[in-house]
Structures are given as structure tokens and as C-alpha cells.
Design goal:
The protein is mainly α. It has two domains: about 15-325, no CATH class; about 340-555, Phosphate transport system protein phou homolog 2, domain 2 (Methane Monooxygenase Hydroxylase, Chain G, domain 1, Up-down Bundle). It is about 80% helix and about 0% strand. It is built from 25 helices and no strands. It has helices at about 1-10, 20-45, 45-55, 60-75, 75-90, 95-105, 110-115, 125-135, 140-165, 175-185, 185-200, 205-215, 220-235, 235-245, 250-270, 270-285, 290-310, 315-325, 340-345, 350-380, 380-410, 420-450, 460-485, 490-515, 525-555. Keywords: Cell membrane, Membrane, Transmembrane, Transmembrane helix. It is found in: Cell membrane. GO terms for molecular function: sodium:phosphate symporter activity. Its main location: membrane.
């Protein structure tokens, strides 16, 4: 009788599990993944985007880039979003974006393989070291490294907290019955993995949970495989939602990501029993912890489908073009060629021509950004805002590159009879074009604030803005033509147009104040920002005139 009482006392109950610890550990794990990804992104800066743009010339290289970038950022969604933004900007083809999406699936397996190494005990040391670096180091570069180490640490600490509580589940009769049902019907496990991943928006978190449950002996490999497949399907929800209302290429890339993962999961589910036995045999050969078996499962599944989909990607693109018809409104343009520093010493005039060509491309991007802010004013489409931000990043990068390049030309050739005024004028032209780009970004942010506060412009205010946009765009187009052709015939007309732009700025301010007094424009944010928007448009006209004036000074210096 005493033995029976001891047995009953030692049998764990549901109340013995500290669910608050599980939830807290899970929260730490998710936070660690975010810290880790953000740390890598901050440490690399704009180089991640540059690497994606530069090294995705063909499908295989795009897949490799997607794998590496996702492994670093700990987010397949982030890699996919960057590639889609480059498609929107016309710097990447759809097949390249699809390659990155496919490679991103493989990149997500790195975390599961790391968990399989059973180094959770090191997590506390990582947290300590990372915290010290974040608290006491001053340089941003080292703080970013500290964030990476800290993120890795709390990821493992969160896993250990969950593991200590989840191990109790193995002795609960209710949980055993649940897992038996899952094992008997893997389709339920597939559904559970899909829903769990979609809800928490992290396939890595679900895989980590499955690893811990499997390691405790509470799940068969068949059920674990189904959860792995489901996590791949669930992670596609973000890509599909992000593509809703987006451009044609955005929707095609988003739905490819979904269809690719769904079809892969469904086909592998048909052979899940032999597939799971194969994983167990691989694990026997490789060795390692039970968690490693699930990590191998995740890796092998994604590797099979990465290799398997490659021959069918062209056919998939044709199918997507049929299912999602239409032309993209973002034009495809040639990639911006890197500036050749070899010309600086061997052919300085050629180097100047190359700089002028890239400055012209920069001006085209600024014009596209300005036109997109006008579209955003009427459409309220977040994608228009995203396009403006993407173009701004590109313009800023070109500004930095051109400034360094022109300085190198000036230093190398200051004794070769080429006047310094020419270099000064070229740099000032670049800076004025870049400033126009900055102002278009400011305007997009003004509109965003207005829309977020659910306010709108009156019809008369919209008409005034449209007329000012029309006059400004005409001015800037002609100013940039003067720069490209170095033809000053239209200078006097442009100066008069700039005076007219100043006049309508004042006129529209007065009209706005009258509308406010008549309660026609009564939105708090809109009323405040309307004058700022007018001022921003007028300042862009000033910078356009500055470009023309520096073209004139260049010609006079020759």
C-alpha cells in the first residue's frame, strides 16, 4: 500500500509543469532570434543588400546568397523581403528573387543544427559576455558584435528553460495519448506545425520546440517529420500577406514561396514513413544528440527540395505569369556599374565621363522617387512608400560612391591641368541631386504620418499639390537634361519657372490658411504638414536650379 502511495505521489501531474517558465523561455528564445538577426544586419549595414544585388547574377548564386544571408540574419522572411524590394526597384529579376527565396529555406536549418550540438549550457556565458559588450563598449561596431553574442546567449537560455519543463511532459498520460494520435495521423502533426508556425511567425521556434520534445522521448520521428514539413508551410504566410496588394513581381514571388513549400510538404508526406527511417539511419551514421536528428531532418528536407525545384523554376515562373497576369509598374533597369578606379590614373577624362553617367542614373532614380511620392499621395499604398525608401537607399549609396570617386580624381590629377572648379561643380551637382532625393523621402514620411492618423487632404488641397507637382517635375526634368546634355539654352526659362514656383508656394499657403479658417481643412496633422509639404516641393526646385548653375560654372571653367 505504501509503495502504491509513493508511486502516485511521484507520478507527475499537469500542475507540476510551470507553464510560466515555458512561456518565458519561449519568449527569450524569440527575442534571442530577433537580437541575433538585428545584430548581424547592423554589423553588416548596407553590405547585405549590396551582396544580394552583386552576387545574384544566376540562379545558383542567388540560391547560395539566400542560404548565407538567411543563416546570418536568422530570418528567411528578411532575405526574401530584401530581394523583393530589389525587384520593385528594377535591379533584380523575378527568377533571382525566387532563387533567394529557395536558398532562404536552407539557411533556416542552421539554427536547428546548432541546437542539435547541445551547447545550451554555454548560453549563460554568451549572455554575460554580450551584456558586458553592450554596456561598456562605445564603438557601434563592437556593440553590434555584442548584440550578436547576447542574442545567441538568450536563445540558448530560453531553450534550456523550456527543456527543463517540457521534459516533465513525457510522463503525463494525456500528453502521451496526444502524441500517439499525432504519430498515428501525421497529417494532424502537419496541420499543427503549420498553424503553430503561422501564429508565432517563426519556423525556427517551432523546430526548436519539436527538438526538445523529441529529445525527451515524447515524439516519434514520423510525427517530428510532419511538424518539420508543417513549419515550412506555416512560414509562407508572411510572404503571402506581404505580397497582398503589392506589385505583380511581389505577388508572384510571394506565391512561389508558398506553393513551393506546400507542394514539397504534401509530396514528402506521401513517403513520410520511409523518409523518417532514412533520417534515423543518417543520424546513426552522423551521431549526435536526439535534437540533432530533428536538425538533420530539417536540413535534409529543405536540401532535397532546393535541389529538386531548380530544374522546374523556369516552368514555375511561366505558371505564375499565367496565374498572376499583368505588367509590373516598376521598370527593369540595368544594374549600376561600379566606378572604375583604374581610369582615375590612366584616363581621367574617361573617369569623369563615367562619374557623369552614374550621376545621370542617380538623377533618374530621384525623378522616379518624386513621381512615386505623387502616386502615394493618391493611392495611400504602402508599397509606394516602400519604393521611395528603397530608392533613397540606392541614391545615398551612389552619393557616397560618387563623392569618393570624384575626390580620388581630384587628388590624382590636380597637377595635370584639369581645373579644380570642374571637380567642385561635379560634387555639388551630386549633392544637390542627393538632397532632392532626401526631400522626396521627407514628403513620403509626411504622407505616411497623415495616413496613419486616418486624415486626408481636401479636394482643393489635392488640386494645389497636383499643380505644384506638375510644375516641379517639368522643371527638374529640364534641369537634369541641361546636366546630361550640357546645353544651357533653357537656363533663362528655368529661372523664370523657379520664380513662378516660389509664387505659387506663397499663394497655396494663403489658400490653405483660408481653408483652415473656414474649417475646410480641419485635420490636425494635415493642417500642420501641408505647409511643410509645399516648402519641401519649393526647395526641390531650388536644388534643381543649383544643378543648372553648377553646369554653367563647369562650362565657364573649361
Amino acid at each position: 500500500m505504501e509503495g502504491i502511495m509513493i508511486f502516485l505521489t511521484n507520478t507527475p501531474q499537469l500542475g507540476d509543469i510551470q507553464f510560466n517558465v515555458i512561456l518565458g523561455g519561449f519568449g527569450l528564445f524569440l527575442l534571442g532570434i530577433k537580437f541575433l538577426g538585428d545584430g548581424f544586419k547592423d554589423a553588416a549595414g548596407p553590405k547585405i543588400r549590396d551582396y544580394i544585388e552583386r552576387y545574384t547574377g544566376n540562379l545558383l548564386s542567388a540560391i547560395l546568397v539566400g542560404t548565407v544571408i538567411t543563416a546570418l540574419m536568422q530570418s528567411s522572411t528578411a532575405a526574401t523581403v530584401i530581394s523583393i524590394s530589389l525587384v520593385r526597384a528594377g535591379l533584380m529579376r523575378l527568377d533571382q528573387a525566387i532563387g533567394i527565396s529557395v536558398g532562404a529555406n536552407l539557411g533556416t536549418t542552421v539554427t536547428a543544427l546548432m541546437i542539435g550540438l547541445n551547447i545550451e549550457d554555454m548560453g549563460y556565458y554568451f549572455v554575460f559576455i554580450g551584456a558586458l559588450m553592450l554596456m561598456f563598449l562605445q564603438r557601434k561596431k563592437y556593440k553590434n558584435y555584442g548584440q550578436i553574442i547576447f542574442g545567441l546567449g538568450i536563445t540558448f537560455v530560453g531553450l534550456q528553460l523550456m527543456s527543463d519543463q517540457l521534459i516533465i511532459l513525457q510522463d503525463l498520460p494525456q500528453f502521451e495519448a496526444f502524441l500517439l494520435k499525432m504519430s498515428d495521423n501525421p497529417w494532424l502533426a502537419l496541420l499543427a506545425g503549420t498553424v503553430a508556425t503561422a501564429v508565432i511567425n517563426s519556423s525556427m521556434a517551432v523546430i526548436a520546440l519539436v527538438q526538445k520534445i523529441y529529445a525527451g522521448g515524447n515524439m516519434t520521428m514520423v510525427a517530428a517529420s510532419a511538424f518539420v514539413f508543417g513549419s515550412n508551410v506555416g512560414t509562407t504566410l508572411t510572404a503571402v500577406l506581404a505580397s497582398v496588394g503589392g506589385s505583380v513581381s511581389t505577388r508572384r514571388a510571394g506565391w512561389f514561396h508558398a506553393l513551393y513549400n506546400i507542394i514539397g510538404a504534401l509530396i514528402t508526406m506521401i513517403v513520410i514513413q520511409p523518409y523518417s527511417e532514412m533520417i534515423l539511419k543518417i543520424h546513426e551514421i552522423v551521431g549526435g544528440s536526439p535534437e540533432m536528428a530533428v536538425g538533420i531532418n530539417h536540413f535534409v528536407f529543405n536540401l532535397i527540395w532546393v535541389v529538386g525545384i531548380i530544374p522546374f523554376i523556369p516552368a514555375c515562373i511561366r505558371l505564375l505569369e499565367i496565374l498572376i497576369p499583368g505588367e509590373d509598374r516598376i521598370k527593369e533597369r540595368e544594374k549600376i556599374e561600379p566606378l572604375d578606379y583604374g581610369l582615375v590614373t590612366t584616363f581621367p577624362e574617361g573617369a569623369l565621363q563615367l562619374a557623369q553617367k552614374q550621376t545621370s542614373q542617380m538623377a533618374d532614380l530621384v525623378m522616379e522617387s518624386l513621381n512615386t511620392t505623387r502616386d502615394y499621395l493618391h493611392s495611400r499604398d504602402v508599397e509606394d512608400y516602400d519604393v521611395v525608401m528603397q530608392l533613397e537607399e540606392m541614391v545615398n549609396e551612389m552619393d557616397s560612391n560618387l563623392t569618393r570617386y570624384l575626390l580620388a580624381i581630384a587628388k590624382q590629377n590636380n597637377d595635370q591641368g584639369i581645373k579644380a572648379e570642374t571637380y567642385v561643380a561635379n560634387v555639388e551637382i551630386v549633392k544637390n541631386i542627393e538632397r532632392i532625393g532626401d526631400i522626396t523621402t521627407n514628403i513620403a514620411e509626411f504622407y505616411s504620418r497623415i495616413f496613419e492618423n486616418r486624415e486626408s487632404f481636401s479636394e482643393e488641397a489635392l488640386q494645389d499639390l497636383d499643380l505644384m507637382y506638375k510644375h516641379l517635375i517639368s522643371m527638374l526634368e529640364r534641369s537634369f537634361e541641361v546636366f546630361k546634355d550640357e546645353n544651357l539654352e533653357g537656363l533663362e526659362t528655368l529661372l523664370k519657372d523657379e520664380e513662378y514656383l516660389d509664387a505659387i508656394d506663397i499663394k497655396y499657403r494663403e489658400k490653405h490658411f483660408r481653408r483652415m479658417s473656414d474649417d475646410v481643412c480641419d485635420g490636425k496633422i494635415t493642417s500642420s504638414l501641408f505647409v511643410d509639404i509645399l516648402s519641401s516641393l519649393e526647395r526641390m526646385g531650388d536644388h534643381g536650379i543649383n544643378v543648372v548653375k553648377y553646369v554653367k560654372s563647369k562650362k565657364e571653367a573649361v
